[in-house]
Write a structure and sequence with these properties.
mainly alpha, 3 helices
């Protein structure tokens, strides 16, 4: 995080989270909102993506998309 901030001049918030764990996802979003005041964009490029909106994805769908072998 320090290297990225130094290289870009941007503000970086490093948060360790396991995106296969719902509790970590909630904690991650809460920390971002506490720090920045809001969350405008979230990009996850791990796994695959089921054909549905993020809000419609259940924990089971989310886990299936992430745990690709």
């Amino acid at each position: 995080a320090q290297e990225i901030a130094a290289a870009t001049g941007g503000e970086v918030l490093a948060i360790q989270a396991d995106i296969t764990q719902a509790v970590d996802c909630v904690r991650f979003i809460q920390r971002v909102i506490e720090h920045f005041g809001r969350l405008d964009i979230l990009v996850s490029h791990a796994g695959r993506s089921s054909a549905m909106s993020f809000e419609q994805a259940t924990d089971e769908v989310w886990r299936d998309d992430i745990e690709v072998t």
